[in-house]
Amino acid sequence: MIGELVAAGDGTVHIRQDGDRGRPVVLLLHGFSGSVHWFDRVTPLLAERYHVVRLDLRGHGHTGGHTGLDARSQARTVAAALDAIGVTDVVAAGHSFGADVAIALAEESRHVGKIVVIGQAPDYSFATFPPGNGLLALPVLGTLAHRLATPSAVRLGVRFGFARGFAFNRAFDRPDQAVLDHAAMSPAMARTVIVERRRLLAARPLDEQARAVGLPVAAILGRRDRFYDCEKTAARWAAIGAKVDVIEDSGHSPILERPERVAELVQDFVAG
């Protein structure tokens, strides 16, 4: 099901809204190769108390596009989309690359009152990525690899974002959702996240950006994250005064692995 397509910048953005629109707003921002559907499990739980807004970032889902893919450009597009639907004050929750966008949105606009980082370290200094990941960032070969990727190869890559043993068929309502999201994503996103993002975060890590913003920050992490070392990530976020919660039996994507716990932690943070 497609939500609204709203004008934002030089294109349109696909937005879904759930819950009472008179209540506080929680904005959900997905990560690399994701879509609004990565929050299908969390949204109904949050919509009982909040107005939940989620959208497809540039280069993803029904928003599409091949430019303006870095976090700061994405944040400007998100700000324009929020203006288009009349939303002015949000708790911005970003999963993985979505955390970069949430923090950039707080810097770029006055829309954000609190920030929730889900499954994301401040930079790549202790990151581990699946073998062959860098291939996707190559100018020509990466585009070809993206277009020729088989469903089984896509599922294998997505599984790295879950704790070992997590039942993949429990992740989405549609068994092929991850494959559809990968196919809809711009091939240019790979270089944006794998190469350019590494450089940008090395120069100015997310914890440094969040400290400069000066807003309340919560970090929700998975103990069994295979992308980032959980202990080091938790220590970095705690060092800037963030509220840190670790979900013991989750990997990099607690929004899919433990949606009930994520919703509970977000509610506690919003209320607090």
Give your account of this protein's structure.
- With 272 residues, the chain is an alpha/beta fold.
- It has a single domain (4-271), classed as Rossmann fold (3-Layer(aba) Sandwich).
- It has eleven helices and eight strands.
- This is AB hydrolase-1 domain-containing protein.
- Pfam families: Abhydrolase_6.
- Residues 26-264 form the AB hydrolase-1 domain.
- It comes from Amycolatopsis minnesotensis.
In a nutshell, what does this entry contain?
The protein has 272 residues and is of the alpha/beta class. The protein has eleven helices and eight strands. It is globular and about 45 Å long.
Task: Present the secondary structure layout.
Layout lengths: L3 E5 L2 E8 L6 E5 L13 H4 L4 E5 L15 H14 L5 E6 L1 H12 L3 E7 L22 H8 L2 H9 L17 H8 L3 H16 L2 H8 L3 E6 L7 H10 L3 E5 L6 H4 L1 H13 L1
Parallel strand pairs: 3-4, 3-5, 5-6, 6-7, 7-8
Antiparallel strand pairs: 1-2, 2-4
InterPro entries: AB_hydrolase_1 (IPR000073), AB_hydrolase_fold (IPR029058), AB_hydrolase_sf (IPR050266), Epox_hydrolase-like (IPR000639)
Organism: Amycolatopsis minnesotensis
Protein name: AB hydrolase-1 domain-containing protein
Number of strands: 8
- The CATH superfamily turns out to be Alpha/Beta hydrolase fold, catalytic domain
**Order of neighbouring strands in the sheet with most strands:** 1-2-4-3-5-6-7-8
**Which value, in Å, is the CA radius of gyration?**
17 Å
Largest sheet: 8 strands, mixed
Quick one: CATH class? Alpha Beta
The CATH architecture classification is 3-Layer(aba) Sandwich
**Percent helix among the residues?**
25-40%
Q: What is the count of DSSP helices, taking H or I runs of 4+ residues?
A: 11
Q: How many structural domains?
A: 1
Distance between the termini: 34 Å
What's the overall geometry?
Answer: globular
Succession of helices and strands: EEEHEHEHEHHHHHEHEHH
Approximate strand percentage: 15-25%
